Amino acid sequence: MGQRMDMGMDMGMSMRVRTVLSGFALATSWTWCIGMFAPIVIGSLMGWPGILAFAVPNVLGCALFGYLRSAERSRQETRDHALAMAVFSAATIAYQVFFAGWQWGQPISEAMTTTIGNGRALGAGAVFAAAVALAMLPRGVLWGLAALAYPVSLLTFAFLPWGSMHAVQTQGEWQPAQMWLVLPTIVFGFMLSPNLDLTFHRARQEVAAGQKPHNFAVFGVTFASMLVLTCCYLAAGAGGLNNPAVRTHMAVQLTLTSALHLSELRLARITSNQRIVLGVGAGLVGLGASLYDPSREMYLRFLGLYGLLFPAYAALALRTIGKPTLGALIALAVALAAVTPILDHAFIEGPTLSAPLAVIVPLAAIALFARRGRAANDA
Fold this sequence. Notes:
- By secondary structure, the chain is mostly helical.
- It has helices spanning 2-30, 38-67, 71-80, 82-112, 116-135, 139-154, 176-192, 198-205, 215-235, 238-241, 244-267, 272-292, 296-321, 326-348, 357-378.
- 80% of the residues lie in helices and 0% in strands.
- It is built from 15 helices and no strands.
- The chain starts with a helix and ends with a helix.
- The radius of gyration is 21 Å and the shape is globular.
- The longest helix is centred in the N-terminal third of the chain and has 31 residues, at 82-112.
């Protein structure tokens, strides 16, 4: 009997360790160029209230992902929406590759005495090539590396220039009231975008039957600490962002995020041709964007995918009507096309009173199809 108790305790300890490591790996899978840089951009636009408005729905939306669905429901969603989720992964890879080219083009060109265009190509290409190599590893090994990356990134705190820290301003380039005009987009985006993340679905499906998905609670704490790290090097100004430890942290996270999503593309329920097009296309789009327009504006336009396109699909397909019909997709596409200029103007030029329409119009289209679906079911 004592031996059985010892075995039960060992199994319980092993399960807790797996839960913690899964939470660590999830933090790495979600510490994109958004979590590592968006607070800097948002802080410059909206001050620390904007950073808080970004961080809270971001952490909550991701942490609640696991608790709001069963493993079986997650498996069904990854079957029914495989292509949409694969596109999400491809866009995420492209975003990381673009960011690497944008941020490392100048230092690489100076270090290698080459043109800045070559520097951007080398920075973007290095992240994509390393991600491809890592994605070839067995999935368990890759997830183990992702779990290890979290404590490695935590070490960055020890190397920050604490003596040059300053308070993050209350107000940025925008007037305080303007933040409220884009708050619906921020909440809409970060509460719903995680629904399409294949790495999140993988983590939920691998929770043992009958167990609570507490790896997502661990994730909530660990990812929040990554956002705190970003705010710390934001507070250090240029000295923080150019700190070698911060650059290393960014390079590790960009590469592993891309590798995790490439790994999921290999296993997604899509055709081989779709897999190749999305994987190769992600690298080419990221590289092309970093060469064509390496700027804050392009960064924000990539970010708009997660504030409008992906959450709108998630609201329609995963939260409302299930696998969408062609008519529903066309109607949603028309609604998104109508409001994309509004969202683009809001974040590039500054929000006006029309900014909330970026969320209201797609939600109205989704509500219309939800009502039709209920009417058809009643009939």
